[in-house]
């Protein structure tokens, strides 16, 4: 580890620690503070991935407990009103650790720069302290690999959309692509299913939950029950059907 870097965004991969990079493991083992986001009363997914390498270590850990998660829609003013001060306070806490000479690693499920909470800390700290972001296998890459579904062929265009978008916007985006990944399912699953059906992609869609983990579930979306309760950290993939030789 560089003697000058004090702040790391540490991508740990899609879930199975075997997919963690050598660089990520080195930082994980040596950082003074391991930071993870979580819901109140629960350990974060990223911290759970790290268990296989470092186990529980209260003296090294800093838990950043979200004030809200899915209780308030992301486009509601109360959502930003709750999270902005949370990120400001977290930034101040981590900056104090760094200024005290300690290395701080923020643990990230998947890749830190792909829909990650880490980014809200990164843009507040990147110009204040030496920073390194350690890339990782993304959750969507783990999903299409474990599903045995090559996502793009030939000139296929891949579109990645969050399930939090309005149904009409989801349908518009999905109707103009060859392959797709829909992130952030949870309570958005019925809306996403309807958008995929309207776009003519329902029959090709595959639901993937906890890809690469012991609790992994891979199910063709058309056979998934209408009342299925999807966790937020699940996704849908729609493989492309492009040029093959």
UniProtKB/TrEMBL annotation:
Top-level EC class: transferase
Pathway per the UniProt entry: Cofactor biosynthesis; adenosylcobalamin biosynthesis
EC number: 2.1.1.130
Top-level lineage group: Bacteria
Record-level GO BP terms: methylation
Keywords: Cobalamin biosynthesis, Methyltransferase, S-adenosyl-L-methionine, Transferase
CDD domains hit by this protein: Precorrin_2_C20_MT
Domain (Tetrapyrrole methylase) ranges: 7-220
Protein's name according to its UniProt entry: Precorrin-2 C(20)-methyltransferase
The species this protein was found in: Microvirga splendida
């Amino acid at each position: 580890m560089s003697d000058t870097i004090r702040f790391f965004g540490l991508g740990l991969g899609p879930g199975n620690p075997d997919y963690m990079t050598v660089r990520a493991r080195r930082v994980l083992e040596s950082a003074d503070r391991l930071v993870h986001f979580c819901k109140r009363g629960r350990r974060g997914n990223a911290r759970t991935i790290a268990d296989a390498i470092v186990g529980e270590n209260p003296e090294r850990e800093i838990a950043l407990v979200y004030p809200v998660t899915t209780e308030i829609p992301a486009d509601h003013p109360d959502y930003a009103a709750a999270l902005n001060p949370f990120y400001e306070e977290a930034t101040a806490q981590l900056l104090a650790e760094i200024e005290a000479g300690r290395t701080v690693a923020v643990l990230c499920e998947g890749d830190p720069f792909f829909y990650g909470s880490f980014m809200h800390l990164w843009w507040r700290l990147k110009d204040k302290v030496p920073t390194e972001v350690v890339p990782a296998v993304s959750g969507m890459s783990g999903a299409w690999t474990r599903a045995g579904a090559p996502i793009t062929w030939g000139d296929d265009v891949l579109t990645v959309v969050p399930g939090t978008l309005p149904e009409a916007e989801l349908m518009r985006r999905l109707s103009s692509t060859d392959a797709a990944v829909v992130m952030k399912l949870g309570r958005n699953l019925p809306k996403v299913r309807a958008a995929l059906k309207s776009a003519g992609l329902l029959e090709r869609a595959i639901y993937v939950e906890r890809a690469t983990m012991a609790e992994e579930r891979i199910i063709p979306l058309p056979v998934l029950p209408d009342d299925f309760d999807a966790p937020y950290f699940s996704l849908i993939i729609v493989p492309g059907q492009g040029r093959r030789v």
